[in-house]
Design goal:
- It is built from 25 helices and no strands.
- By secondary structure, it is mostly helical.
- Helix 9 runs antiparallel to helix 10, helix 17 runs antiparallel to helix 18 and helix 17 packs parallel to helix 19.
- It is globular and about 90 Å long.
Length: 471
């Protein structure tokens, strides 16, 4: 049987090696002699704070004994949350994720620890320690997978939001898993969950899923809004305070999402009906500052998308009015990307010449890739996709007009972006467009293209665990 070393033995060995008394060591560590003696003799367990003091006094790196601490005081003892909780927080501070993983694995056979671990995960999430929180949420979710509890659904929601990132393939997997848990959430929490789920599917252009999530969100939001204003329901008013937006916004956002679905299907008349719906907000009863802000925003979006639907349906007469609207609007750079994307899509679809428009917004176009994104799921997911898409449409526009240098510049940017997003479909579209015009590329551009394709190939080789055996 393999003998597990102990922190006590390591400390005892150190004291003998350094010919140091308990009193001397206690003075260095900031601990009294009695506590040091009790730890060395094994008559007293230690806290993670005491362990950190001992580690520092021995001039060892932070967290040096954490694996032994798990062996000596967690695995070999009945779980004690008064000891485990501060240890988990300290591991999170030091990014000791393997240690957190071991602790969770050692105690989660007992469901009694689920509530406390969940509470710790919530605190870590609020602190921005997402990787550490994720391990705890996954541990609780695994332990409670047969419980059908609301806590399980919340864990899956947290896991979903933490995992969403640049990799659209991974995002699709995360969304697919989480979708099955939405209905288990509290009815109010379901609204934000459906909004976030719809935004991820929107960035993936899974329009049937966007439509499904939007319709569910609208139905549930309308029911909650009616309940809220039914005899001024106090309980509903309190519960809606958890929402990230005013309650009515979930109804209007559902119409906006449905309009996007109709746009993709080419049904611009139906898209206009949805647009008119979220532009007409006379039914909203609230009059507070936050509500007025969102009403103004939706009316502006409705005006914008009325232009868009007419433009993309072939009504070119609205183009100039739409351009003036973009120029005069006080929208931020992230919103301008989607507005200008519609211009270049229409230009490519109807073979329009829009050089003057592109020149007019040259500064904004050049700054798109430099935008910092907020934590909102829309800005995290939809905007990066729009930027990559905009690059592709610009490349298509310039290459078909013989402006090869600028066309290839935008195409390379779009291709790199889609590789980062791990969107194979649109990455292949970029490759196809490049190959179609390859005879017009200068040698430097061809070399950059080939070098990038080789890098993508090598990245895939490394990720998939395969190798080029030719060396």
């Amino acid at each position: 049987m393999k003998h597990t070393p102990t922190i006590r033995a390591e400390l005892d060995r150190y004291l003998k090696q350094e010919s140091m008394s308990l009193t001397q060591f206690g003075h260095i560590a900031g601990m009294n002699r009695g506590i040091v003696s009790a730890i060395v003799t094994g008559n007293k367990s230690m806290s993670v704070n005491q362990l950190d003091l001992i580690t520092e006094a021995m001039d060892l790196p932070e967290g040096y004994f954490y694996d032994l601490f798990i062996e000596n005081y967690i695995i070999d003892h009945p779980p004690n949350m008064r000891r485990i909780e501060p240890f988990l927080f300290r591991c999170a501070e030091l990014d000791k994720l393997d240690a957190i993983r071991r602790v969770v694995g050692s105690i989660m056979d007992n469901l009694l620890y689920s509530p406390k671990l969940f509470d710790i995960a919530e605190v870590l999430l609020a602190q921005g320690r997402h990787d550490a929180a994720l391990l705890l949420y996954e541990g609780v979710a695994e332990a409670e997978k047969y419980q059908h509890s609301e806590r399980l659904a919340i864990c899956q929601y947290r896991i979903f939001t933490i995992q969403i990132g640049d990799d659209q393939s991974r995002n699709l997997s995360a969304a697919t898993i989480f979708e099955a848990f939405v209905e288990r959430l509290d009815e109010i929490d379901q609204l934000d969950a459906l909004k976030d789920l719809a935004n991820v599917y929107r960035s993936l252009r899974k329009w049937n899923k966007v439509d499904e999530a939007a319709k569910k969100m609208k139905q549930k939001a309308k029911a909650q809004y009616s309940l809220k204003h039914q005899h001024k329901n106090r309980e509903c008013n309190e519960s809606t305070k958890k929402l990230s937006r005013p309650l009515f916004v979930y109804i209007t956002y559902a119409d906006l999402l449905c309009a996007s679905v109709c746009d993709d299907q080419g049904d611009y008349q139906q898209a206009l009906q949805h647009t008119y719906a979220y532009g007409n907000l006379d039914w909203v009863k609230e009059t507070d500052e936050d509500t007025l802000y969102w009403i103004k925003l939706y009316k502006d979006w409705a005006k914008c998308n009325t232009y868009v639907n007419k433009l993309l349906s072939g009504d070119i007469s609205v183009l100039q009015d739409y351009v003036e609207y973009i120029a005069e609007s006080d929208s931020n750079e992230q919103e301008k990307i989607s507005k200008l994307l519609n211009v270049i899509i229409a230009a490519n679809r109807f073979e329009l010449e829009v050089d003057d428009i592109l020149q007019r917004f040259e500064t904004e176009i050049n700054s798109f890739s430099e935008q910092s994104l907020s934590d909102d799921m829309y800005n995290q997911q939809v905007i990066p996709d729009y930027i990559a898409w905009f690059g592709y449409e610009l490349a298509h526009y310039y290459l078909h007009r013989g402006m090869y240098s600028v066309g290839f510049k935008h195409l390379m940017y779009s291709m790199v972006s889609y590789h980062t997003l791990n969107n194979e479909t649109y990455f292949i579209n970029c490759m196809g467009l490049f190959l179609h015009f390859r005879d017009h590329a200068v040698s430097e551009t061809k070399t950059a293209f080939l070098n990038f394709i080789e890098k993508v190939w090598m990245d895939n080789v490394e990720k998939n665990g395969t190798a080029d055996h030719r060396g």
